[in-house]
Amino acid sequence: MSTTFADLHISAQLVDILRERNMETPTPVQVEAIPLILEGRDALVESPTGTGKTFAYLLPLLTKVNMDKKDVQAIVLAPTHELVMQIAREAERLLPGSDTAVVPIIGGVDVKRQVERLKKKPVLVVATPGRLLELIDQRKMKVHEVKTVVVDEADRMLDAGFGKPVTEVMKRTLRDTQRLLFSATLPAGVVEASEAFTRDAAVIRAAAPEGAQGVAHMYLITDPRKKVDTLRRLLRLVDVRSSIVFVNQIEKVDEIVSKLNYHHLPSRFLHRDATKEERARTLQQFRDGVFPVLITTDVSARGIDIPEVECIVHYDPASDADTYVHRSGRTGRMGRAGLVFSIVSTQERFIIEKFSKQTGVPIAEKFMSHGALEDPRPVQKPQVRNGKPANGKPAKSGAKPSNPAKRVHKKGGFGTK
Questions:
Q1: Which residues, other chains included, contact 53 with Cβ-Cβ below 8 Å and sequence gap of 6+?
Q2: Percent of the chain beyond pLDDT 90?
Q3: Which of 102-116, 120-134, 220-234, 385-399 is least confident?
Q4: Of 16, 91, 30, 15, which is closest to residue 334 (Cα–Cα)?
Q5: Are the C-beta atoms of 323 and 298 separated by less than 8 Å?
Q6: Backbone phi, then psi, for 79, in 5-degree steps?
Q7: Contacts of residue 308, Cβ cutoff 8 Å, sequence gap at least 6
């Protein structure tokens, strides 16, 4: 018999809200994490992207808060403006009728407006660590009643860029405050760093939900000079409603956007230098299907949760295996099917092979031909008779086998319009 949300002892009001949203069965990470959080244990929680980690901590947090006690009782820390707002929206939907119970705190906006919202006594604050620490140090926000602090995207939040402000926020809370770290990947360095502010933390490594349709991982070999054309043809081939393309340098983006738009594949670039309003508008239009291709860097896209994303393209290779996992996790969320492609040169093939080995995820080489993705053709060695090939022509010593991907690119393949 499968576990239900009611079996996990979250509040009856939350069970009713989830039922109204046709959510009856918790995911593995929710089954494992919720009881521990309700017990008050510190925990480090790893679960694949898109498996319900946000609800795994929001449901027990909102079960435990006292709505009659007008103090901040829980804090969620996240690395980007978009993720903070996303988590805050989910929390608000779980607390209908409580307009002031959740306050998002992010940098780059008017501090006075945030202080005014804090004066309305929220029970939950969702924040980027830098701005939150600023408000705490200015005594604009009190944390003496905070019972739980959650660090979302913990592998990034404890790196060189965020580690110090996160640790400082932890120091401002009481020693017996419950500390929870959530991420799709929990490297040894993160576990070690967390020991500075956690106590006897449980480690949960949850699997993806059973019955998940799965995500297919593939890579294409291309000439670097034809990379944009390969991307265009790939997007035409898969023909999905929404794709996210990851790049490493923003200098490449103008060329990509202009060529995709020219070939009637509308695309936009999500970048960190845009205003908060511009970024929010771009994401909302992407969610609404106004344009099918979102191009972004790792920094801008961290934590974006758009369930309908069907395809991820690593236009540039990820910096490491963990980043590959996080990028790829933007598709196949909550057990849906998804496609992940990497576009690499022959010299970059070893990167994909390394990621496959480190993650345990099979990444298959493919090439495009006549509107289909095909496996590379095995190289046929010429038959040699009496020192001569069967066709009578002299054998060439040291001849290199042709690259099927390059052969397809020269022919033009498919999808040209």
A1: 29, 45, 47, 152, 182, 184
A2: 55
A3: 385-399
A4: 30
A5: yes
A6: -80, -25
A7: 241, 242, 287
Domain boundaries, the chain: 6-205, 215-411
**Sign of the torsion angle spanned by Cα atoms 264, 268, 269, 273:** positive
| Main-chain phi, psi angles of 224, to 5 degrees | -55, -30
Q: How confident is the model at residue 302 (pLDDT cuts 50, 70, 90)?
A: low
DSSP result, 217-245: EEEEE--GGGHHHHHHHHHHHH--S-EEE
Q: Is 215-411 the same fold as 6-205?
A: yes
Q: 329 with 50: CB under 8 angstroms?
A: yes
For residue 9, the SS3 value is coil
Identify the bridge partners of residue 340 per DSSP, sorted by sequence position: 217, 312
Structure-block tokens of residue 332: 């196949």
Which CATH number does 215-411 carry? 3.40.50.300
How far apart CA 358 and CA 350 sit, in angstroms, is 12
Residue 2 CA, distance from chain mean position:
28
Residue 397: pLDDT band by 50, 70, 90 thresholds?
very low
Average pLDDT over residues 108-132: 93
Q: Which amino acid is at 126?
A: V
Q: Write the pLDDT tens digit of every residue in 283-292.
A: 889 988 999 9
Give the Cβ contact number of residue 55 at 10 Å: 23
Q: How far is CA 83 from CA 122, 143, 301, 344, in A?
A: 19, 22, 9, 29
Two tokens, residue 286: 């992407």
Question: Is residue 202 helix, strand or coil?
Answer: strand
Contact assessment for residue 417 and residue 239, using Cβ atoms and an 8 Å cutoff: no
Phi-psi region of 221 (alpha: psi -120 to 50; beta: other; left: phi over 0): beta
- Tell me 399's DSSP state: P
What's the mean pLDDT in 4-24?
92
Tell me: pLDDT of 161 over 50: yes
**pTM exceeds 0.85, yes or no:** no
Which CATH class, in words, describes the domain spanning 6-205?
Answer: alpha beta
